[in-house]
Amino acid sequence: MIRSIFYRVFTLCLTLFVLLMVPGCSQEESGPAQKTALLVEQKTAPVVMPAPHPRPVGETFKIGLVGPYTGDLAPYGIPTRDGVIMLAEALNAEGGLLGKLVELLVMDDQCKPEVAANVATSLVSQGAHMVIGHICSGSSKAAMGIYREAGIVAISPSATNPPLTQSGDYPNFYRTIAPDDLQGKLAATFATEVLGAKKIAVIHDKGDYGKGFADFAKQFVEADGKAQVVLYEGVTPGAMDYSAVVQKIRREGADTVVFGGYHPEASKLISQMKNKRVIAAFVGPDGVKGKGFLEIAGKDAEGVYATGPMDVSKYAMNQEIRQAFVDKYGKEPGTFFDQGVAAWQAAINAIQMAEGTDYVKLGAALKNNYVETCVGKIKFHENGDAEGVGFSIYQVRDGVFVQVQ
Amino acid sequence: MTTQDLFQFIFAGLTSGAIYALIALGFCVVHNTMGIVNFTQVDFVSLGGMLLYSALFSAGLAMPIALLGAVFGVTLVAMLVERIGIRPARSNDPVVLIFLTIGLSIVLRGLMALVWGKNRMAVPSLTGDEPLRLFGAAIMPQTLWILALTSLTIIVLVWFYRKTSLGLAMRAVATNPRAASVVGLPLGRIRMLTFGLAGALGGLAGILVTPITTLSHDVGVLLGLKGFAAAILGGFGSLPGAIIGGLGLGLLESLSAGYISSAYKDVCAFVVLLLVLFVRPKGLMGK
Question: What is the pTM of this model?
Answer without folding.
Answer: 0.72
